[in-house]
Design goal:
The chain is an alpha+beta fold. The protein folds into 2 domains: 186 residues, 3-Layer(aba) Sandwich (D-Maltodextrin-Binding Protein, domain 2), CATH 3.40.190.10; 206 residues, D-Maltodextrin-Binding Protein, domain 2 (3-Layer(aba) Sandwich), CATH 3.40.190. The protein has 20 helices and 14 strands. Strands 8, 9, 10, 11, 12 and 14 form a 6-stranded mixed β-sheet that branches. Strands 1-3-2 form a 3-stranded mixed β-sheet. The chain has a 3-stranded antiparallel β-sheet with strand order 4-13-7, sandwiched between helices. The two termini are 20 Å apart.
């Protein structure tokens, strides 16, 4: 789900790499370095690093790189020993690779009070074999089920608490003209990954995909993954919006279908809340715009509190950096990360820091109701599962998305999907 974060929008017109020279008083002969992404909320991260430089005797130079270019550039740099001091990742397969190759250092003694402040479901994404190798740096982005209350009211429906409730809603709306149950941007593929993740997790629990990430032989060929794929194909026949493979998330077409009353529900990331308020203000202000958690699967083994999405982007510290450069990074992480000004900036923009001490700050914000719900989701989550396209090893990412596209288009069976993914390991 990496291409739709509000932190990564607006990058198409930005050069692949642009140097942000952040200077400050003081300084040292060995300057630490950090690479971030361009556009969106990353401007706030650059501003925060600049504030650190202005108040510190050591400084951090920042280079901003477009999202897709960054993925290749950082892998090359880390592999060659030329990585920046502070390495940004989505954790998952990339972080495991860095740890296994000893390209990043343990941070257990350099996190200050951060571990006590960050929600455990988010923090665990940076832990490998009981050691901390990465810490979150920006907002948490759970996947949320949005709904149009007017559509539900018109057809005598309620917000679903269980999957049986959702199936009843789908059955009720199946024969209704010009209204479908579920908006999904199948043409973009990645939004459908959210359905695959939640259905797999609700059916079998977080251990199912953990086995995939850990590289267990045959892990993809699991009854819960097959159940999720089969269910998605059933939703394609009755449930998903008509012509869902022509719907484009890059143009916010899936959100527009919800706002226009063409669909009752939309499963999307938390960033869509801001999108709907900005692009469809009449719907956002109508009292019909609602949001809730993914339904519980009654017969499933998964914990219904589990969340999928983007726990955050994370900082790691390069083992190839000098001691002085590493010390600068440690100081930033332990003393500056998620400072009051940075947290206020996030909340005022409608973004949610993954912290357990922001409840009072959320109160009174324009997005108070939504941020409170999202904060409760993350705080109460037994497990927060990273988006699969970031959690798998880099070599599996493209086959995963290609095979999911084939499932959506009806060109591949669930069994063929899992067999092909097993062959990628």
């Amino acid at each position: 789900m990496s291409r739709r974060s509000i932190l990564q929008t607006g990058t198409a017109s930005v050069a692949a790499a642009s140097l942000l020279a952040l200077t400050a008083c003081g300084g040292s002969e060995e300057q630490a370095e950090a690479w971030i992404l361009t556009g969106g909320g990353w401007d706030a991260i650059a501003d925060d690093l600049e504030r650190f430089n202005e108040s510190s005797e050591s400084t951090i130079d920042v280079e901003a790189i477009e999202n897709d270019a960054y993925k290749q550039q950082i892998r090359t740099a880390v592999g060659s020993g030329d990585a920046p001091t502070m390495i940004m990742s989505w954790t998952g397969g990339a972080l495991l690779e860095y740890v296994n190759e000893e390209r990043v250092v343990p941070l257990d003694d350099h996190v200050g009070e951060l571990e006590q402040r960050v929600h455990d479901s988010v923090w665990q994404n940076g832990v490998v074999e009981d050691s901390v190798y990465a810490v979150p740096l920006n907002d948490v982005q759970p996947v949320v089920l949005y709904y149009n209350q007017d559509v539900l009211d018109e057809h005598g429906l309620s917000v679903p608490e269980t999957w049986s409730d959702m199936e009843s809603i789908i059955d009720t709306l199946e024969g209704v003209e010009d209204v479908d149950a579920l908006s999904v941007a199948g043409g973009s593929v990645w939004p459908a990954l959210m359905w695959l993740q939640y259905l797999t997790d609700r059916h079998g629990g977080e251990e199912v995909f953990s086995a995939v990430v850990e590289g267990e032989e045959g892990a993809w060929d699991n009854e819960s993954i097959i159940y999720a794929l089969e269910t998605m194909q059933e939703l394609g026949e009755s449930g998903f919006i008509d012509n869902y493979n022509a719907v484009d998330a890059a143009q916010n077409e899936d959100a527009q279908l919800l706002a226009d009353g063409r669909a009752a529900f939309l499963l999307q990331g938390s960033w869509v809340y801001a999108t709907i308020n900005m692009d469809f203000p009449e719907f956002a202000d109508s009292g019909s715009f609602g949001f809730t958690t993914f339904p519980e699967l009654e017969e499933g083994e998964g914990d219904p509190s589990n969340v999928v999405g983007n726990p955050a982007n994370f900082w790691s510290v390069s083992s190839d950096a000098s001691e002085a450069e590493q010390e600068t990074a440690f100081n930033y992480i332990s003393e500056h990360l998620y400072n009051d000004e940075a947290v206020d900036d996030m909340l005022n923009s409608g973004s949610l820091p993954p912290l357990n001490d922001v409840e009072d700050k959320i109160a009174g914000t324009d997005a108070e109701e939504f941020l409170t719900m999202a904060d409760d989701m993350v705080a109460n989550a037994n497990h927060f599962q990273l988006s699969w396209d970031q959690a798998v090893s880099p070599s599996e990412e493209q086959p995963l998305m290609d095979n999911l596209a084939a499932i959506l288009q009806g060109n591949m069976t669930p069994q063929e999907f899992v067999e092909d993914m097993n062959s990628q390991q």
